[in-house]
Amino acid sequence: MHRRPNAVGIVHGVLFLLALSGCDPGINLQAGETLHPTPENAPPADAAVIATGSEPAGLSADALDRWREARDLLLGAPVALALGTMRDEGPELFGLIGDAAFDLDGNLLVLDPLSYEVRTFTSDGRHLGSFGQEGEGPMDFPGEPQSLEVLPDGSLLVGMRAAMKSFAPVAGGYEYLDLIPVWARDMCVTAAGRLFVTVHDTRATERVLHEVDPAGDSVTMSFGHGYLDEDWLARNQLSDGTIGCMDEPMQVLFAFDEHPILRAHRPGNDDPVWTAALEDYVQPLYAGSATSIRMEGPHGEVTDKPHVLAGGHIIWQTYYRRLFSERIRTYLIDAATGQGALISEDFPRVMKVTSERFAVAWNDPYPRIEVRELVGN
Fold first, then answer.
1. Confidence of residue 79 (pLDDT cuts 50, 70, 90)
2. What is the sign of the dihedral through the CA atoms of 222, 185, 312 and 358?
3. Which residues contact 333 (CB under 8 A, 6 or more apart)?
4. Is 122 helix (H, G, I), strand (E, B) or coil?
5. Quick one: which of 167, 85, 145, 119 has its CA closest to 110?
6. pTM for the structure as a whole
7. Of the candidates 311, 348, 346, 358, which has an alpha carbon nearest to the alpha carbon of residue 69?
8. Burial of 130 (0-12, 13-18, 19+ CB in 10 A)
């Protein structure tokens, strides 16, 4: 259903009606169950709108011009490197592309979570080396690796759900540094080297954003609430999300996995600087009680990691899979206000963005990855 740019209130009303009615013919709530998301988790009335139209509303003329320039720069970026094959053996045969990063020399790091492996390629595609496997050794991963980040000193962080590992660059590859026993659903690093992770902390703070001291192996700050509900099962499952770091001004972005909301937080503040809501989104619905939670109806849309584009913009994508098709929507958002708009429905998944280049990937019909240059930046 296409909604107009003032549709945030309509979204709130639809969620409210769904939450009140077990009588909806498509909803099969059992005794004691609540339909999620509930009205208290709907986008606030003053949320910025990420529109399905061609351009965002509410921006000044100068901000809109900058938004258009960023859109054209992103969509017109030329391909500098392409990797991936479905026929040959070797380092370009990926099982799955889970994440990517760039080291300080401009080499591309690719994380293959199916093989528990990190592979390094030069800017012209030469394979420099690989490390990792499932296991307990220093260079191995006891849990599925999910994310990559490179710190300003060149060390590499590999995030798993329940911990992180750090590695130092050496001639010909990496060597093990440390196990950081901090849960990390996703992570981001600022230009100054501040490390933030997201995971719903059910044990203490009920917060979803955390600053981590890699040297001290500990969380130093927690902020930003997750999904709000009295039942911990709903809070835990529906608080999952991804994270992005902005440098100017210093803010941390949080995107719910299964909720059309993106928030910008100053570190340490629970209340966001702004909240933005997608105008058109296929909301996944869950039926929950104090003892169980289950999906009600077909799968909905899933949001992806927010990426910061130099010049004050954010790239955010959603993924929606039907029986025989899939749709990836790419949105470009003004970082100062949260206002944004749809820019593509056929752009590949964005994996990592720097001021000079970005990596995109596909996993269907076979895993492959490209590096594209931001030549106008």
1. very high
2. positive
3. 50, 56, 262, 276, 313, 314, 315, 316, 339, 340
4. coil
5. 119
6. 0.92
7. 311
8. middle
